[in-house]
């Protein structure tokens, strides 16, 4: 009975928070301008003629598998209609012999901007590899935690539609929901949580936290995926900003620069990493197809250079986008993931895959680009009739 009453206690506390829902919404949505949609043609997409959308078609087919499990009334973000509008394109995708012709036949490009701001920022992420051991010995002293049993996660959108995509995480302290410990506290005192395995390098584990998933090679020669399971609810802070505040030059800041600094400053590395209060908990999965990545937020394996993390307060997972910009942009990407730092209308994080080359590309990726959502034609027609398109 006590366990059955626990959610009710949490919900009661949340209603107090949600009483000022509108103010919270604006605080959590730091947009440079309102969402603006403009109908364009494929011929107007800079780089469309040169792109090869075959990998994106495969990724879209994966998304359709996930979409098929949801009801027709499920919304596809704030502007993409409902899943009923996506049934026909998904059915056609399963049999499409030509990727370019498929996208041109079933979709209409719509420019997505933040008011008058057309360009946004696009970064990259990859699937790192760490070493692990099932037992604690030698250099393998650092625990990699599963989701703790006392971590409570709440979808605020279930209480207020304006808060869709916002979540709280914490733990119960008697009758009170309190924040979960930050990274520094977890590192100093540990957790009462299942330990999946032990690793040997705090810096490499930190980058696994940043990327959200990866692979582990155990000391017995076996391998596995390390998938995202949960987050402690604390805010994410890019430690590149911490290093800049410490005097590291801003120009050329990248994953590689951050790693090199942490490795060469072992006495200060823990303090810098702990400036990011966010902490990730993982699950272990079979490796499966090594060409694909771990499952993203949509629950499907990520496809290198065809999957992108977006802000799901605005965009629907499964939506194809043409992202115009300098290479490696200028391609079709399918929204299949989310990220703590991906918080804007025109903002994306491109998945680059696994290995040294993927790490190099993702670590230096930080460039402007433009979002063009590829929407089913009936959805665009409805948006036009409603006067939503500019």
UniProtKB/TrEMBL annotation:
Keyword Coiled coil found: no
Enzyme's top EC category: lyase
Protein EC: 4.2.2.n1
This protein's UniProt keywords: Cell wall biogenesis/degradation, Lyase
Catalytic activity line of the entry: Exolytic cleavage of the (1->4)-beta-glycosidic linkage between N-acetylmuramic acid (MurNAc) and N-acetylglucosamine (GlcNAc) residues in peptidoglycan, from either the reducing or the non-reducing ends of the peptidoglycan chains, with concomitant formation of a 1,6-anhydrobond in the MurNAc residue
Domain Lytic transglycosylase MltA: 129-283
SUPFAM superfamilies xrefs: Barwin-like endoglucanases
Gene3D superfamilies from the UniProt entry: Barwin-like endoglucanases, RlpA-like domain
Entry superkingdom: Bacteria
InterPro entries, per database record: 3D_dom, MltA, MltA_B, RlpA-like_sf
CDD domains xrefs: mlta_B (cd14668), mltA_like_LT_A (cd14485)
Family matches, as PANTHER family: MEMBRANE-BOUND LYTIC MUREIN TRANSGLYCOSYLASE A
Stated name of the protein: peptidoglycan lytic exotransglycosylase
Naturally occurring in which organism (per UniProt): Rhizomicrobium electricum
Lineage, opening ranks: Bacteria, Pseudomonadati, Pseudomonadota, Alphaproteobacteria, Micropepsales
